[in-house]
Amino acid sequence: MRIAVTGKAGQVVTSLIERGAAAGHEVIALGRPELDLAEPASVARALEAAAPDAIVSAAAYTAVDAAESESDLAHAVNGAGAGAVAQVAKTLGVPLVHISTDYVFDGTLDRPYVESDPTGPTGVYGASKLAGEQAVLAAHGHNSAVLRVAWVYSPFGANFVKTMLRLAGDRNEVSVVGDQHGNPTSALDIADGVIRVATNMVCNSYPELHGIFHMTASGEASWADFAEAVFAASAARLGPSAQVRRITTADYPTPAKRPANSRLDCSRIAKAHGVVLPDWRQSLESVMARLRSAV
C-alpha cells in the first residue's frame, strides 16, 4: 500500500515512516515547502503527485498555548488545511485517515469520553481541530476516519517523556500537575493503529469503518503518575530520575486551558477496526528502552 502522509517531522509521521516500512508499505511524507496546509493549492499538487492508495492527515498546528494569540493561523492550518486534504482525497477517490485530539472536549465529564459526547473546546487549538474534523467529514465523510488521540509521546521529537528526563538531569524534584487525567499514548502505537485503519478502508467499503473514532492507549494516568512511571523506568536503566511533587492545574497557569479529563473510550474503534492499543505502561517501557539505548 502506498500511503501519503501530511507532515515530515512530527511524532506520528516519523512513527508512520518506521512502522509502515516494517509492515511492507510505502510511506511518502509530504511537508513544507511542497505541501503547506495554509496554502490549499500546494496541498492538491503534492498529494495528487504522490498518487497514494490512502492519505493520512497528520500535519497540524500543535502549539497549544501559542494558538491563543495566533488564532487565524491555527484555524487556517487545522481547519481549512484539513478540509483541503479531504477534498483532494475525495478527488482521488482514496480513503483518508485524519488525526484529531482530545482537546475538542472541555474535560468536565467524570468518565471517559465516547465519540457521541458533545464537543466543547476551551481554547483556540481545540476549536481549530474541531473545525478540521467538521471540514473533513463535510468534504469526504463517506470515506474518512477521524482518529482522536491524546497525550502523545515517542522516541522522536519533543514530548513529555523527553522533557521529564531533561529536567531530571539537573534537579532532584520536578513539579507535575496531578489533577489532569488521560491516556498516555505512544506515537508508534498510533502509527500501527493508523495503518490498520487505512488498510481496512482500502480493502473494504463498510460504512462502520468511517466516521469519528477514539484511539488511545489502554489504561489511564495523571501527568504526575506518568512522570513517576518515566522516572522509575529511567532509574531501572541507570538513567536520570527525580521525585515528583504533585501540584494542581491552578499552580501552573498556562495561556490555554487544559482539559481536566482527557480520557477517551476506545470501544468503537476496537469493534469496527479491531484496533486495541497496548497499555501505556507497556509501551512506555519500549520507548524508554529506545531512548536509553540512544544515549
Q: What topology does this entry show?
A:
Elements: E1 2-6, H1 11-22, E2 26-30, H2 40-50, E3 54-57, H3 71-92, E4 96-101, H4 124-140, E5 144-149, E6 152-153, H5 160-168, E7 173-177, E8 181-182, E9 185-186, H6 187-203, E10 211-214, E11 221-222, H7 223-236, E12 243-247, H8 267-273, H9 280-293
Parallel strand pairs: 1-2, 1-3, 3-4, 4-5, 5-10, 6-9, 7-12
Antiparallel strand pairs: 8-11
Helix pairs in contact: 1-6, 2-3, 3-4, 5-7, 7-9
Features:
two-stranded parallel sheet; 42% helix; six-stranded parallel sheet; 9 helices; globular; Rossmann fold; alpha/beta; 295 residues
Provide structural commentary.
- The chain is of the alpha/beta class and 295 residues long.
- Helices cover 42% and strands 16% of the residues.
- The chain is built from nine helices and twelve strands.
- A six-stranded parallel β-sheet has the order 2-1-3-4-5-10, sandwiched between helices. It has a two-stranded parallel ribbon with strand order 6-9.
- Helix 3 links the parallel strand 3 and strand 4.
- The relative contact order is 0.16.
